## 1
Amino acid sequence: MLEETFLHRDAIPLFVQLASKMRRRIVTGEWPPGHQLPTLEQIGEEFGVSRVTVRQAAERLEREGLIWRHRGKGTFVHDHSTLRRNFVVNATWRSFIQSLEGMDPAVLWVSETADPLVSSVPEGHLAPAYRSFRRVHCREGTAYSVTDIHLDDRIYQKDPERLLNSAILPILDAMPEVEIASARQEFTIGAADYPAARDLGTLIGTPVGEATNVVVDRSDTVIYLANIVFRGDLLRLDIQFTF
């Protein structure tokens, strides 16, 4: 089915609608990395909008880091192929752990005290208190995901420095005193809110992938809860089928 090119004259600004359609062409590969975009006039004619509307849409995508403009030559799609994060669906625990090794996150903030967790969890029961922190993951200087983590404070106290600055799940997996009984990951598609847009360097409302990871130990206690937001343009789902 061909994409509809017309825009609706409704409450959503035309340049926002146009930016969404242009973004989709970039994310899906219709406009691949290095591709030169049509001129403002050509885009305006295709979608039936003014040159000003096209310029506003292009400026929005440029601020998101999806395109760049070269004076006198035109507008081009950024090459983010080396920054894309493969998000493996239906992975084994071992392959998932291996995919996390070597990460170098930056801590944005960490709670000064351990506090009870007020949010609900899909399984298990809550630990007495959690240490909460927010981290951002970057590749080549570009933030591709931001994570809010709640870690059982009894585990956090064993090695705070390492747990704050390294991938946590491989550490938990290797701890002899921690017995992991189950782990689950739920993935959805959403839109960036203000905190996510701020930390990912994108705009409010841009597409993002949202994952929730829950790890439960042998005592049926949730020892790790993470809410992850991925930049949609730097995310690729890798669905593996097993036989």
## 2
Amino acid sequence: MKIFEETYGKYGKVLSMTAGGIKISVTTEIGPRVIFYGKEGGENILFEDLGDEVNKPEELMDPVLKGSGGWHIYGGHRLWKSPEYMDTYYPDNAPVKVEKISGGAVFTSPVELTTKLEKSMKITMNERGDVTLEHKFVNRGEEETTPIAMWALTVMDGGAEAHLPLDTSDTAFLPNRNIVHWCYNEVSDPRLTVKDDDITIRFDKTIPHALKVGTMNTLGYVYSYTKAGKFTIKLPKAEGVYPDFSCNVESYTYNLFTEIETLSPLFTLKPGEEHTHTEVWTLE
């Protein structure tokens, strides 16, 4: 395995890791974002917002954030706070603290002025090229948080086809599957296919409006077919109470990209407490 610093286009300095024919790069001057993920020498499966088409202007933010420059998606993979409110869109335009560790590094953002959360991602890679992302929230404020969840979003380049597998186990009198829609959805959207064991979300650059669906995934994985192969995200065992009508996985698409998102259960943090949410990535 190799770990090295380099410059990556408009994103400036990144820390890159390679092993098993897989490469991952994380921004250090903004974010952090996992801005590149793919096969060594191959294409990036992640979306890059080179034209800054996805953003929230500064005037929509809390007055305490004046001068922060507003929020920008940048692209790639990020860590957010759920449920989704305006304070979710905290501008992360500042340099990131980087601590190199065995097999990877920890990327930590400055404490958020509005939520008092410190966000970090511990990213490690084994010799096969499997990537483990341990997301962390720490409450650096003086009060207990409201109920929140950790929300890890992977923004994939346009052509990706997302799959949210459904459990078809016999649960007798109890339900075993849910499909959650957002208010802007059209249930008959041609990009959405629901089968007994799978929810599929397809990208279509000719459809400008958004589509988002979620479900409670009890199988422990979601996946996407990308231009570099099958991308799988393994997630923690479903336990506890989840946001968004009980979703631990979600997918969002419109005419620029497709996302696969995983969520932790809801929790509160007293001052100094922390919470983690872990994903494992493979690409084949």
## 3
Amino acid sequence: MELDLVEISPTANPPVCKIIDYKKFLYEQKKKQKEIKAKSAKVVVKEIRLGPHTDEHDFNFKLKHAEKFLNDGAKVKVDVFFKGRNIIYKDKGEIQLLKFATALEEIGKVESLPKMEGKRMIMMIAPKKKK
């Protein structure tokens, strides 16, 4: 009949075996794995860069982009980049990030508070779960 003896569950006591077509069995396993992978949620991270002296209009423009990203289900990584001697304005950068977070608290929650990494201060915002 050209069928194979395939061990289905080797850890069970006694081990479970079936008489099936092995190639078909492998094909169906691959198909199940592909289906599971397709259903898993892919996390998208969008990045928005500010400066310590970003003006109100630019701030609002980037805020609208962040709102759109969060509504689409992506995480938003907001960073303040300090060029040259701007590094002395760390407090202004942190204020910018906290202002950004409070403006987005309706649709997103802060995943990590502002922290310095080299010349940039980074904060992550994740979308809130829809009820």
## 4
Amino acid sequence: MKHKQMTKQYFIELATYNVWANKQLCSWLAQLDAAQWQQPITSSFNSIQETVLHIIAAENIWLQRLKQEETTTWLQGIYSGSKDEHIALWQNLSAQLKELVAGMDENILSKNLVFKRINGDAYSMPHYQVLAHIFNHSTYHRGQLITMLRQAGFTAVGSTDILTYFR
């Protein structure tokens, strides 16, 4: 898809889907016991908690970058909230992303966002690529979480696929 076809409305829809899918996942996470939340499971990250924190950290730092905050915080490895605090923070960040996208000027989509990577290197890329990455990244790791939930013995999961959302 060429960026000219990626309209603000398209990203509002992706942001709304992201809120919906994260809410679905958070409803399942809320049902986990402490052992399931922390259970070592081999994936991109070592537990459900670490995977959730990675998504939170990514949504948070991209929000900070999109807001052009001078100082950004990478939460992975430093955030130590409870499971309920992880869930609340994740839902809050997703809602903030949706709000930010809804308030964007459509003309900014093709303009570069200049930011510092986690390692401090300066970088830039068009806003439409940033937004596409954010929502794709969350989808990728939500898929991992569903597999991890099943491996932890929680099988009452449903679909967070965008087709399910559209239906």
